[in-house]
């Protein structure tokens, strides 16, 4: 994989020279999701800190080999929920202009805002606008198909972290659960609304107890962080999630 090749090369420089050569074009992303936003914004040289196959990427702890790489990056993109945030913001003496906090979800409003924030830092606005148009078209086309088929006429119970995509697809949100594990009171509360679909989050699936109390409802897990199921980009994840919602009919 190209990303792995870049990472290996950088680590070689750390070992051989004590620190990597300064790379004014390199963008460091905390995880695969912030990296996907960076690529959508037009970044080409993106180093991802948390491994793509990590089950909980937000919990990645910085390692010694990450420090010189981060220190020589043009831009470090993070979302704020990562374990490493405090260290990035106050423990590494990084220049304020090198850090960029973005919002991450799959609402069109959020994606456009975050992509353009990155693009403005990199001077890649033209590429970013093209990618935003592509994402907007994918969402609109999928929403139209859901409207036509009536799939989204089914009210849903949804994991807190998947609210944005189900709303973009026109579903009525009957109840929101998580992200903490469900207790008896939570399950009782979610059992009351009329719903035919339970939408959970692959990265913290806490909604399975609802299957027992929502007899007849279907259950689906959606992605946020790219990496699983051959996903890399924001569009990859959106397509995968749309397939899962379509299969739940």
Verbal overview:
The model is unreliable at 1-23 (pLDDT under 50). This protein has 2 domains: 2-128, Nitrogenase molybdenum iron protein domain (Rossmann fold, 3-Layer(aba) Sandwich); 150-247, 3-Layer(aba) Sandwich (Rossmann fold), CATH 3.40.50. The strands form 2 sheets. The chain has a 4-stranded parallel beta sheet with strand order 2-1-3-4. A 4-stranded parallel beta sheet has the order 6-5-7-8. It has 10 helices and 9 strands. It has 249 residues and is α/β, with parallel strands linked by helices.
Terminal-residue CA separation:
35 Å
What is the helix tally?
10
Please state the overall shape, judged from the principal axes of the Cα atoms.
globular
CATH superfamily of the largest domain: Nitrogenase molybdenum iron protein domain
Count of strand segments: 9
**CATH class bucket of the largest domain:** Alpha Beta
Secondary structure category: alpha/beta
What's the Cα radius of gyration? 20 Å
Helical fraction equals 40-55%
Order of helices and strands: HEHEHEHEHHEHEHEHEEH
Low-confidence stretches: 1-23
Strand order of the largest sheet: 2-1-3-4
Tell me the count of domains. Answer: 2
How much strand content do the residues show?
A: 5-15%
């Amino acid at each position: 994989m190209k990303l792995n090749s870049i990472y290996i090369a950088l680590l070689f420089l750390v070992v051989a020279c004590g620190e990597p050569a300064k790379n004014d074009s390199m963008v460091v992303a905390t995880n695969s999701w912030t990296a996907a936003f960076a690529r959508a914004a037009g970044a080409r040289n993106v180093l991802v800190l948390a491994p793509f196959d990590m089950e909980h990427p937000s919990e990645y702890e910085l390692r010694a080999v990450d420090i010189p790489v981060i220190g020589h990056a043009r831009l470090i993109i993070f979302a704020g929920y990562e374990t490493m945030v405090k260290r990035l913001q106050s423990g590494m003496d990084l220049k304020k202009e090198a850090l960029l906090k973005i919002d991450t979800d799959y609402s069109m409003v959020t994606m456009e805002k975050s992509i353009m924030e990155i693009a403005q830092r990199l001077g890649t606005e033209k590429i970013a606008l093209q990618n935003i148009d592509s994402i907007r078209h994918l969402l609109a086309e999928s929403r139209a198909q859901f409207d036509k088929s009536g799939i989204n006429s089914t009210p849903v119970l949804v994991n807190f972290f998947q609210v944005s995509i189900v709303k973009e697809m026109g579903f009525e949100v009957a109840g929101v659960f998580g992200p903490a594990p469900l207790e008896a009171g939570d399950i009782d509360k979610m059992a009351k609304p009329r719903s035919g679909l339970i939408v959970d989050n692959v990265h913290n699936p806490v909604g399975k107890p609802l299957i027992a109390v929502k007899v007849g409802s279907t259950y689906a897990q959606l992605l946020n962080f790219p990496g699983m199921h051959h996903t890399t980009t924001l569009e990859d994840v959106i397509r995968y999630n749309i397939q899962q919602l379509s299969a739940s009919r």
